[in-house]
């Protein structure tokens, strides 16, 4: 690839960043070919905060007491501190993709709550760009909680399971 300075590249990258923001996307990748040995590969991404969504669901699902004592007010803060991503045994997604709990449709899932796993055992699969990526257990332990559902879309860093 020849290192040619294209004045339009800066404007092109800024337009991609604006497209990312305007369409509420998390990642965009483009390859622009200028000639046989001259191209531009651009990947624009941004980190999305997931915590406000989790707080919104926990606050919406909790019933509002009508005659509860004032001491009950800290309960939503305690629920927010139980974020699975903060758990020391959380295994997070190393990539953006779709989660599959079994090797193929109709097969038994790799794990379930209470399953004992050894370091390196496959916990689940994250499909990214038609590639099936086996997510290994980082250490031996017991599956305490499965946070994602089969077929769910995940972002980089999304907690998948709790392994203790």
TrEMBL record:
Known pathway: Lipid metabolism; fatty acid biosynthesis
Biased composition (Low complexity): 60-82
Molecular function in Gene Ontology: acetyl-CoA carboxylase activity
Coiled coil: none
Record GO biological process: fatty acid biosynthetic process
Pfam families reported in the protein's UniProt record: Biotin_lipoyl
Domain of life: Bacteria
UniProt-annotated stretches for the region Disordered: 60-90
Keyword RNA-binding: no
GO CC term (a single one): acetyl-CoA carboxylase complex
Lipoyl-binding domain ranges (all copies): 88-164
UniProt keyword annotations, A-Z: Biotin, Fatty acid biosynthesis, Fatty acid metabolism, Lipid biosynthesis, Lipid metabolism
Record PANTHER family: OXALOACETATE DECARBOXYLASE ALPHA CHAIN
Record's function text: This protein is a component of the acetyl coenzyme A carboxylase complex; first, biotin carboxylase catalyzes the carboxylation of the carrier protein and then the transcarboxylase transfers the carboxyl group to form malonyl-CoA.
Protein name: Biotin carboxyl carrier protein of acetyl-CoA carboxylase
Species for this entry: Sulfitobacter sabulilitoris
Taxonomic lineage of the native organism: Bacteria, Pseudomonadati, Pseudomonadota, Alphaproteobacteria, Rhodobacterales
